[in-house]
Amino acid sequence: MINSMTGFARKEMTGDWGTLAWEIRSVNHRYLELFFRLPEEARPLEGALREVVAKHISRGKLECTLRLDKSHRAGEPFTINEALLGHVIAEAGKVGARLSPARALSPLELLRWPGVTEEVQSDPASMHAAAIELLDQSLISLNAARAREGERIAEMISQRCELMLELLAKVRVRLPEVQARMRAKLHERLGKLDLQADETRFEQELVLLLQKMDVDEELDRLGSHVQEAVAVMGREEPVGRRLDFLMQEFNREANTLASKSQDTETTRAAVEIKVLVEQMREQVQNIE
Q: Which one in 71, 170, 225, 250 has a CA-CA gap of 20 to 30 Å to 47?
C-alpha cells in the first residue's frame, strides 16, 4: 500500500470553550518535520500533539494549525474586575473634574474598558482533550487523502513497469539478430582487408567481443527490479525510501544497457527505459 506525502485535512469541533478547528497541510520531505500554529490556550499541548502525529505519520513536512473561535460565547456570563473598575472610575473622576463642563463616563463605556469585564473561564483540560481528539480525527482524514493520492501514484508506477517489461522483451528478442549481424560485420571487415583469419582465433575474439557487449545481465537485473518494485508497492508499510533506492538501480542498469548497445533499436529502448525511470522517480519522491 502506497501513501503520498501530499494531502490536506480540516476538522472542527464545538464545545463550551468555543469552536476548535484543525487544518493540516502535508508535503514531501525526507523525514518527519512538524510545524505547529497554536492559540495561546493550547501552547502547553505541543509535546503531546507531536506524539499524536508521530503515531499516524512517518514522513512528510506537516503544517498543523489550530484555531479557537470564541465568538459564539458572546452571550456567556462574565465577571467584573472590581479592583480595576474602581481604579478606572477614580481616575476618570479626576480627569472629568478638569473638564468644563464636567462629563461623567457612562456604564457602557466603563464596561468596554480593557480588562474590566472577564469571561468566565471554561475548564482548559476539557479544551485540551478536545484538541487532541480532533487532531487524531484530522490525521485519519489526512491519511485517507494521502492514500487516495498514493493509489494514483501506484497506478502510474505500475503502468511504467509494464511498459518497461515490454521494452525488455523486445530487446531480448533482438539479441540473436544483433549478434549475428556483428559476426557478419566482422567477416565483412576482414574481407575488405583481404586477410585470411584463423577461424578458431576469429571465434575466440568474437566471443570476447560479444561478452563485452552482452546485455543479458542488464536485462535480467532490470526485470528483477521491476518485480521488486511491484512487490514493494504491495507492502503494508512506508516504502518511499526503498522505491527511491530501486529507481537508482533502474537508472544504473539503463545507463549500462545504453553504453553496451551496438544496435539502434536497443539504444532507443534504453533511452525510453531511462525516460520511464525518470517519470517514476519524480513520483517516488512524493511517497511516504
A: 71
